[in-house]
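User: Can you model how adenosine-5'-diphosphate sits in this protein?
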Amino acid sequence: MAELGSPVRAVVGEKTAKELSSRLGVHTVEDLLRHYPRRYYERGELTDLAGLRPGELVTVQATVASAKGRQIRPKLHKLDVVVTDGRTQFVLTFFNKWFLEKTLSPGTEALFAGKVELFNRKMTLTNPEVYVGEDAETFAGGLLPVYPATTKLASWAVAKSVATVLALADDVPDPLPEPVRERRRLLPLQDALRLVHRPETREDVRRAQERLRFDEAFLLQVVLARRRAEAALLPATARVPSAAGLLAAFDERLPFTLTDGQQAVAAEIAADLARSHPMQRLLQGEVGSGKTVVALRAMLAVVDTGGQAALLAPTEVLAQQHHRSITALLGPLAERGLLGGSDLGTRVALLTGSQGTAARRRALLDIVSGDAGIVIGTHALIQDTVDFLDLGLVVVDEQHRFGVEQRDALRAKAAVPPHVLVMTATPIPRTVAMTIFGDLDVSTLTELPAGRSPLTTHVVPVGEKPHFLDRAWERVREEVAAGHQAYVVTPRIGESLEEEREEPVHGLRLVPDLVEEPALRPAVAVLDIAPSLVEGPLAGLRVEVLHGRLPPDTKDDVMRRFAAGEVDVLVATTVIEVGVDVANATAMVVLDAERFGISQLHQLRGRVGRGSAPGLCLLVTEAEEGSPSRERLEAVASTVDGFELSRIDLESRREGDVLGASQSGRRSSLRLLSVLRDVTVIESARDEATALVATDPHLFANAVLRRAVDALLEDERSVYLEKA
Ligand code: ADP
Ligand code: MG
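Assistant: Here's the modeled complex, given as structure tokens:
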């Protein structure tokens, strides 16, 4: 007798078992029980053939009159099946389902479910779901489940496999504590499992899914609640800056006053740092809202008390820029040990992967000796060779590019757990934040510093109006003539078509960058467009290129000269996407803009209009009016609200992409739960999980839940190890 842990081949045939496990991730009997239908067809929709209307979703019961298959092209097989209900004949068409020809032999009775289409003025169903013989009988009383299936294993075959194990639903242990189940008025797990596969009514489906969805949210939230609870128990060094210390001296020389939002967040952070448990905070802030200075103040508070702070940046360009701008903001306070440097001061070290040996050795020495109070770097900081004297604070910029594991790796470099502040300018909806960063407290900066000039974004549809492109270059010339600077951004670097993506991403992104859509031509590349701009529309201007394949020194040099105003136009890839801050840059032209994602465009345009002059962003595209690509661009042009755009962006993605590769352990545990839509489920699951973990942090009282949590963590770890 099969048990929950038995391999599926104990209950189904060899071929089916192989297909289930290799294509559908169903390895065990329990996996099979957890393989839920995608949707259901209703018995009420069982229609007779004479009454069909185009566009209707129908389930028809009919007998096969004939089935004829043929190979149309090498990879295209067409099967025409004529069915009859005794009065009317009807043709069904199947593509690449050659195996059905045998199943649907003349005389076979079956159920066919799908959408009625009009083809050559005849009505037909294309690739309908098929339920044959006894299987059709089984479902005649209720709803017809449609399972995730493969070309070799149809939904009805999956249903048949599930039927063989349905009785075992009673053996599935319930991880949800009984009081929680009652409070939330949820079905017992065993009932939910039975009903999700064999519902009689829509209400059955709703109740079953409600229960199973809650379980998914609950499990995740228990993991996160435990992570929070564990962190809260860790010791950390409280960091309270002295009244006449480095932070105070910095505040005195700050050329602007902090916004109300910055002050509020600064107070939250100061309170966290003053506790003897590690801070775990996420700072979300609109592009240009001034996160860096907030983070810098936290770092100075730590330096004030004799500790060190590390700032982890996702790209070399950004690390270099942080190093430049933080050094500049600190002025003499960053020159400890130098003539004219302040006694209160410290040193700022930079550590990146491709630094020269001498520079690297010097940086490593400054870090280990504690001379550098502030250490800025890329993922190179995470390496084994980097030793801190007293790491008190880790700041992670643009968190969406780093996984939890990288955060942890850096954290492990401190003798006592350091405080952690992660920052992101890709605002994420609250429920997504609760799922992905659920172990962090969240602060949000919504306002921009006063005096920030407005940013206007236009779509430039060169498909319909080619001459608009000339006008775009003219606008760039006008900005430069007015003493400003501009960016031209392209999706590719150029030279080799292999190299489509910018900057090896250190870590994993929350959402993929480029929008994958079949394209007719390769995207515009920096190295191709720059020379033609110099010879053509931008002749006479000082144009330079910047991309990820340039040597680090060159990158740094180009950015430095651009920041100093020695370059008029920077033709770049997305290396400038995050954090690059040159106030005099007022215009940006994005070429092939439809190849970028919404959030990415929002980040990119955040580079302009950072000073007192208004910013202009032109999204050049050949995407046609009304196409999804064009609509994405119009959305970007219509608002500067990053939260709104992030919502639009996430909604247009599939659920799996929302969580991204870095969350794949979590992703695979989510079958029914939508981190975007199921707001109330996630919230109530979080409340219950937090309460449970508070009374029983080790889950001693619930071995079933403990095992489920361990399994999820094991999944996440193995995904991480595969990447490492
Ligand atoms: P982001 O949140 O996108 O990382 P930055 O920290 O780069 O934003 O800040 C953008 C710019 O605004 C920087 O040049 C910074 O010096 C400036 N800035 C920060 N806070 C203020 C403020 N309160 N008033 C004026 N300018 C500010
Ligand atoms: Mg920033």
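A couple of observations from the model: The mean pLDDT is 84. Residues 291-292, 397, 579 surround magnesium ion (ligand 2) (CB under 6 Å).
User: Helpful, thanks.
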